Amino acid sequence: MKKYSKYLLAAMCVVALAFSAGSFIKVNAAGSVVSAPGQPVDLTYAAEKALPTVVHIKYVQNSKVKTVEVQDPFSDFFSDPFGFFGNPGQGGTQKRQVQTPKRTATGSGVIISSDGYIVTNNHVVEGADELTVTLNDNREFSARIVGTDKTTDLALIKIDGKSLPSITIANSDNIKVGEWVLAVGNPLGFNNTVTAGIVSAKARSLGANGVESFIQTDAAINAGNSGGALVNTRGELVGINAMLYSQTGTNIGYGFAIPTTIMNKVVADLKEYGTVQRALLGIMGGDVIKFIDKQKEEGKEVDLGTNEGVYVEKVEDDGAGADAGLEKGDVITAVDGKKVTKMAELQEIMANKRPGDKISLTFLHNKKSNTKTVTLKNAQGTTKVVKQADLDVLGGNFREITAEQKKQLEISNGLEVIKVNNGALKKAGIDRGFIIQSINDETVKTIDDLQNIVKEASTSKDAVLFIKGIWPTGKRAYFAVPLNE
Question: Of 22, 220, 296, 423, which is most buried with the most CB atoms under 10 A?
């Protein structure tokens, strides 16, 4: 479970959950909600519906050999301060190979289909060599990762099963502040745990992910709840529990869940394309009220014509926002007629769009309202489907360098190009024998490293690989390899 300290959210206060003796809500066996004055809330139906669909996930990262730089304790004593034998103040590190320990961790997930698709958090599965899923009835399955999305901190994994219990997914837009919810997961090693609370706020932004519009709840959430379910009183999924705000690291604060409005789009894209098709407006900005408050702190008065909306700080030249006529200082107030009061709300709306979709954008320019229809674009400035590239796009075969190559060339890592076919490498002038040492400033040691870098770069704004390496002669070289040609 991600945690945020008081230094990040100092303005948030810790409250105790209290149950009043006034009017409550009761849920009957059919799942309908009825008024029951003087009776405590009955959440047994919701718990019975949700528990069988929430799973325990065990993460394993195997021990690996890594090359690290360590400080030589005798370097200062033997160094030449005048630089006769080298550069002064340098050469105080040594490269050594170390064995990393085997790492294990646990989290939660939610079965969303009877054939074994499970939603969880990206941070629950990222970097895993093995994933083991345990169902509520103690059946165990090995899981594979279908796709992940760091921007929303969501991941989709799959187990081989049939007729599995799956959760009913509700529209998180319909949940209201003050409504009762349950957090279902596996916190602190206690499997199949249910806690209750209310929705404390909606469209909360913490600055933790690239796209976020969290449901805030005071239902107890702790380490191990990550990826678990936040459900309503009918046992329907409204969010994926993702993080905890606490001054101690345990639950004395608030939990935050990713709403199903964002989750549904991410899951659909990961299934169909393997990566999220993210539509961008091409602006940078923030909440209007935060901008106004900052100006006041600097002794400036500002009148934007509203205290709500998204203040536009920057507009990208080739983005959809520029096509709509947005300029710095404008305020976005609505999308497709739906009122927007803060950045998190805009992000939630945009998270449901794909490149090529048209939206109606309403904004204030010099306090005058304008509405424009605009076509959304992807990170590369087009409306095409963006797919993660495989190593095939490079048109080459690779192998890890040998100990003899490391010694001869005085290098610690690299992948040797052992064959070049038609592809990006050949177009860039990279031939057989070249040793790739880093790409886009990331060290390359294994074929998995290369694969991950290619996938990430292929969906970025600049789909280019900046490759550094060395030829067998010892000559170093640098290449720019476009991936979208």
Answer: 220
